[in-house]
Design goal:
By secondary structure, the chain is of the alpha+beta class. The protein is built from three helices and seven strands, in the order H-E-H-E-E-H-E-E-E-E. The strands form three sheets. It has a three-stranded antiparallel sheet. A hairpin with a 4-residue loop joins strand 2 and strand 3 (65-71). The longest helix is centred in the N-terminal third of the chain and has 10 residues, at 2-11. It starts with a helix and ends with a strand.
Length: 142
């Protein structure tokens, strides 16, 4: 019995101490996407690029807001949102621990106020042309 204990002591640990110590990750690991609301222009490019439909942009015309949201339960950590973002507002982190007690905790949201047209005053996307006075406003679609 003592001989077996000596052999095991020399061999060292065969497992990692993961729950009690941080798990070492690679430098280029694709983990949880982090959204920087300050840099985001709410263009929706990340939502279009997301193959899992984890990123959504919902427009509420009554409240004049656009809500950007990501569901980490659907996210496959592919990194396409990071590639598509023109403002570099989404970065993949090394965080991979996404265990939560409630499914609602897997969703992150940012709310943005819509810009209003300088001609009609409604939330819209106005056509920009040389002859702006004759160009009608293009209403924002929900």
């Amino acid at each position: 019995m003592l001989k077996l204990w000596k052999v095991n002591a020399k061999a060292g640990d065969a497992t990692v101490k993961y729950p009690f110590a941080p798990f070492p990750t690679n430098k280029d690991m694709r983990g949880k996407p982090e959204h920087n609301a300050e840099l985001c222009i709410a263009c929706g490019a990340c939502g279009v690029a997301c193959p899992a439909d984890a990123i959504r942009m919902d427009t509420d015309l009554a409240a004049d807001t656009i809500t950007w949201s990501i569901d980490y339960g659907r996210c496959i950590f592919c990194g396409r949102c990071e590639e598509a973002c023109p403002m570099e507002a989404i970065k993949l982190t090394e965080e991979f621990e996404l265990a939560v007690m409630s499914k609602d905790d897997l969703t992150s949201k940012s709310v943005y106020t819509l810009e209003h047209c300088s001609r009609c005053g409604k939330p819209s996307v106005c056509a920009r042309s040389a002859n702006a006075s004759s160009t009608p406003c293009a209403p924002l679609r929900p």
